[in-house]
Structure to design on (221 residues):
């Protein structure tokens, strides 16, 4: 059964009203699209979290706005880490027959040969932009790093794009790399037999020189 998220139109757009919506367990949101226009709505928080887990950020599902169903995707979310809650959602009304761009998360799989030998995996890109029909957008881009040795890397052009989507990123952009472990800096060598270097002069030498000068003065008298 296709996912259907229930929503209600928001008529009152004042900031104080948004606080009441959240206090009631709902999330203020908006649905927009070229043909759809722009419509402020509210969705139940628990139902939205369930939909997000089932469909992912790039999944297409239906949203029921007071009885009218529309195909949408989650375009953006605002999250309050202190309160641990989603505070606003942007839904995109998708044209199922037109290609669109979307940012898809990158997930590495496997343990590289280089990491087993002490190297460090560096992931330079955590999202890749892809273009596809809404129904063909992948949930994630899996990057197998098993064969990577120390000093090896994978670029966008090395990844196999799906038959139904293509990458928008620069083909030369590095996605992951295996770098050598950090080397400990060498301590500077210390010559224990070397004489210490004077900065403002040796006090003992100065005193000895002063005494010699006084004796010479008395002999001159």
């Amino acid at each position: 059964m296709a996912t259907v998220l229930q929503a209600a139109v928001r008529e009152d757009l004042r900031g104080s009203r948004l606080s009441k919506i959240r206090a009631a367990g709902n999330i203020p949101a908006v649905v927009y699209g070229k043909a759809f226009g722009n419509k402020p709505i509210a969705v139940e928080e628990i139902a939205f979290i369930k939909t997000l887990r089932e469909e992912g950020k790039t999944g297409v599902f239906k949203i029921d706005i007071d009885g009218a169903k529309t195909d949408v995707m989650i375009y953006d979310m605002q999250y309050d880490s202190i309160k641990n809650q989603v505070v606003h959602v942007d839904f995109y009304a998708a044209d199922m027959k037109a290609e669109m761009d979307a940012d898809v998360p990158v997930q590495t799989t496997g343990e590289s040969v280089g990491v087993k030998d002490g190297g460090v995996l560096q992931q330079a890109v955590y999202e890749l932009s892809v273009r596809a029909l809404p129904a063909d957008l992948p949930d994630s881009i899996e990057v197998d790093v098993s064969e990577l040795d120390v000093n090896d890397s994978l670029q966008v052009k090395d990844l196999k794009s799906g038959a139904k989507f293509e990458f928008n990123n620069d083909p030369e952009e590095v996605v992951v790399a295996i770098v050598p472990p950090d080397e400990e800096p060498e301590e500077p060598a210390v010559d224990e037999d070397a004489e210490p270097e004077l900065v403002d002069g040796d006090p003992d030498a100065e005193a000895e020189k002063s005494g010699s000068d006084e004796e010479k003065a008395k002999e001159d008298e």
